[in-house]
Structures are given as structure tokens and as C-alpha cells.
Specification:
About 5% of the residues lie in helices and about 50% in strands. The protein is built from one helix and nine strands. It has one helix at about 45-50, and strands at about 1-10, 15-25, 60, 70-75, 80-85, 95-100, 105-110, 115-125, 125-135. Residues about 25-40 have low confidence and may be disordered. InterPro entries: Secre_tail. This is Secretion system C-terminal sorting domain-containing protein. Keywords: Signal. It comes from Flavobacterium palustre.
Length: about 140
């Protein structure tokens, strides 16, 4: 069985439309509280990324797509250590580190990761940021 799902979110800059068409089958679904899906359904990454639009600290990620090194530039100094978590498309944690930066730019070397899409979470005591990265 094929299914379609989507959501439209209004932001200050306009609308964000997320739509997916995927495969669901009786084999991949459960009738109790757990839901297991197969096919090409989108993950919850979009909702995580959208949640960071409400933060006071503006974060710029570059370059994206990247080869070996990615930078995160913050609109203000980050006095607390930053926890970095990188997840692969299956949701597995593939990189984790805690760093303290002296300026507004955090640089992470991810040369050992294979080419793919990743979800990155940056977190301090009063800040949480999610973004999607593409490794070339």
C-alpha cells in the first residue's frame, strides 16, 4: 500500500511544505503502541529542525554539503561547553563530542563519516540546535 503524508508550517519568511510519498505494508505496521514502518517514509528530522527556528541564537552552518569539515557560526558567544551529536539516516549516533569554543565559530572534522545525510544536534544548557548535513 502506498501512502502520502505532509504538513505545512507558516514561518516569518513564508511557508514550509513537507510532503512524502512512501510505502507501508501490513508487515511493517503494528497494532499496539509501537509503530514500525518500512519504505520511504520521512523521519521526524523536519520537526526537530523547525523547532530551532524559535531560538534567540542564530546559527549558520557552512559549507553544506561538505567534504571533511563543517562550521557552525553562532550570533553570540557560547560560554558553556557545546555537546555535538551526529546521527545517520537510521537514527544511530555516529559522532559525539563536547567542546568549549573561545569565539563564535565551532569547526567539526567529520572526514571519517561516509557520504550520506546526517542530522546534527548542538546543545548547551540553554540552547538546542538541529540541522541536516550532506556529506559529499
Amino acid at each position: 500500500m502506498l501512502s502520502s503524508q505532509g504538513i505545512t508550517t507558516k514561518t516569518a519568511e513564508g511557508y514550509i511544505i513537507s510532503q512524502t510519498i512512501g510505502q507501508q505494508s501490513i508487515i511493517g505496521n503494528s497494532s499496539n503502541k509501537e509503530i514500525v514502518m518500512q519504505g520511504f517514509q520521512q523521519s521526524l528530522w523536519g520537526s526537530y529542525i523547525a523547532s530551532t527556528e524559535k531560538t534567540e541564537i542564530v546559527t549558520r552552518t557552512y559549507p553544506n554539503p561538505f567534504k571533511d569539515v563543517v562550521n557552525f557560526e553562532f550570533s553570540q558567544l557560547m560560554p558553556n561547553p557545546i555537546e555535538i551529536h551526529v546521527f545517520d539516516i537510521s537514527g544511530r549516533l555516529v559522532f559525539s563530542k563536547e567542546v568549549k569554543i573561545e569565539n563564535t565559530i565551532l569547526t567539526i572534522e567529520l572526514a571519517k563519516l561516509p557520504r550520506s545525510e546526517y542530522l546534527v544536534q548542538l546543545q548547551t544548557t540553554n540552547f538546542k540546535y538541529y540541522t541536516k548535513l550532506i556529506k559529499l
